[in-house]
Input
Amino acid sequence: MHDDHPPGPGTAAPPVLVCLGDPAAAPATPAAFAAQRDGLDPDLRVETWAPPAAAGAAAAPDDAAFAEAVRTIGAGRPVHLLGFGAAAPAAVTLAARRPGLVRGLVLAGPHAAPSGTPLDGVTAPTLVICGDDDRVAGEPVAQTYAGGVRDAVFVTVAGAGHRVHDERPDAFNAWVRSFAQIAEGLPHRADTRRSAT
Output
């Protein structure tokens, strides 16, 4: 985890972006998001998390350890959750099942969602972003996520492939920063939507 000094008196801590890494590449998760840690500071405090190797090929959608890690990292505040690639379905599931933990959801180059992934249960503001040359998952998969989550924002980044956050960190970080700032202004969106339905 990233070790920041606590904010001084009268200053608020920046929002937290938890980057959920691909479970198959868990040991490399912190390095995979180095461009976000460097490029989003001081607007967002970037942390990384990946399921322990013993968890298998994918984080269990209702994994209590995942929810507890997000709760701990956020220090009691909802976080912005970034699910990249194969980690996107777990990020969606956490956002849908535990909406109080997730202020905003970012899905980058998402892999196909397994049947039963609760896209329609997400109430957090959601950004789906992919490279226009993503040959791993592809734009149609990303569009499926964006179409399944109510009011999701869908963005393609020119000149990027699957690892859009590495290949075009300038554009990726600009979208994430702007999106997080907007989502921070909508803290009661989940409560409002629930009471309206």
